[in-house]
Amino acid sequence: MTAPLLVGRSLTIDDVVRVARHRAPVALCDAARARMQESRDYIERLVAEGRVVYGVTTGFGRLASVRIDAGDVRRLQRNLLVSHAIGVGAPLDTDVVRAMLLLRAQSLAIGCSGIRVAVVELLLAFLSLGIHPVIPSQGSVGASGDLAPLAHMALPLIGEGEVEWEGRVRPAREVLDAAGLAPVVLEAKEGLALINGTQAMTAIGALVLHEARELCTVADIAGAMSLEALKGTVTAFDARVTALRPHPGAQAVSANLRTLGADSAVHASHADCEKLQDAYSLRCMPQVHGASRDAITHAITVVERECNAVTDNPLVFAADDAVISAGNFHGQPVALVMDYAKIAIAELANISERRVEHMLDPAVSGLPAFLARQGGVNSGLMISQYTAASLVSENKVLAHPSSVDSIPTSANQEDHVSMGTTSARQCAMILENATWVLAIELLNAAQALDFHAPLTPGPGTGAARDAIRAVVPPLTEDRILTGDLAAVRMLIREGVLRAAAERAVRALQ
Fold first, then answer.
1. What is the pTM of this model?
2. Cα–Cα distance measured from residue 147 to residue 485, given in angstroms and rounded to the nearest whole number
3. Mean pLDDT of 185-205
4. Alpha-carbon gap, residue 453 to 266, rounded angstroms
5. Which residues fall within 8 angstroms of residue 229, CB to CB, at 6 or more apart?
6. Which CATH number describes the domain made up of 5-197?
7. Per-residue pLDDT at 275 exceeds 90
């Protein structure tokens, strides 16, 4: 049996993916239990002593000056959840919901939130049993964190709201009864601890960046295939070039391109031609793809840090007899890097579309127009570039940084907000669009390489072309291409394309 991932110890983005998408088991580590119990004991002592503490014995936000009687503490915490659960839009995907459950538990397990162990154990039970709260995707401004999404996530803990379980959406209370779980009655500070934080934007961000990291290598494979198809030169990828401008991403891309196209008969066939330079979309792949890689690497560092952060308010320092009201819930760190990642991923699609256009234009490619056999009666892959252009244009709108916007909330108490969850959601849309654009490039590149037969491509690019041909036959006459494109996209999403290339050469970066 697989050992459970221990919540309360440091998590990586890969850990989040294991739990969110592959249902890896989870458990609370013993050290976390001890930390949480210490902070909970301290909160209960404050309540017993009648101290005035924000969110514990007072209202919230602009209502922080309103003192709450001891007899109303439980009602206050329940009301906080139900009043804040007012999100709208399509429900978040199951993998995002699972990532949110994990990351909320992780933040609380650090032991500075004053919440009972039993509440966090119920969050982890939801993960283990596949009980997934229905969480609307829209409604967060990213400070005081993801209030609306987290309120919807927390409602089922008290038997309210809806959950998806065993393929059906059902009332939470009904599912808890069927699963043998008892809802909790929230005590002082617990409702606030559950909904103050950045776990919606961080969950979306972690999953998107995990895929974006893989898409960078797919972009190199597609670009290497297009380079051969267009009889471009590999000399621009000489290691001495990137050594003079040593950005790690550019060096990795150059190495990938050299490996993928090594020993290519197509490249060898025009080694002595008069052409000295290629278009930037070919020649500058290390610089463009590499910059996107470096941006995504930076974003992963920030989001991984956020996965292990305490982001609610107020923060409990039991050993110091202190409760500090501060701003760790503000989503600006995540918002900025998700906007950065939006631009980085959009650029992978932007440059890819240009390579598609080059392959389809006979004046540039030297290949049949639109890669059609018997052109005129056949349109070939003409419209694939239209689709790519549409997606790239849409990405340009989505890539506008959401973090530069702010609308004050809570009667101007929360007068600057991050819009980080919007950034993360838009980044997911851009990633989806970019994946389709790269699938279009791969479809075109495979068709273009077929025209160079009997010359063979490099082992890496040839293996990628063969993986495509295993699911998509050559285009000999016009047919509906939607299914072909979807098949190539699945090769990307399931890692089949990269694995095929790596089997032929070596591990790519």
1. 0.96
2. 39
3. 95
4. 9
5. 266, 359, 365, 367, 444, 445, 448, 449, 451, 452
6. 1.10.275.10
7. no
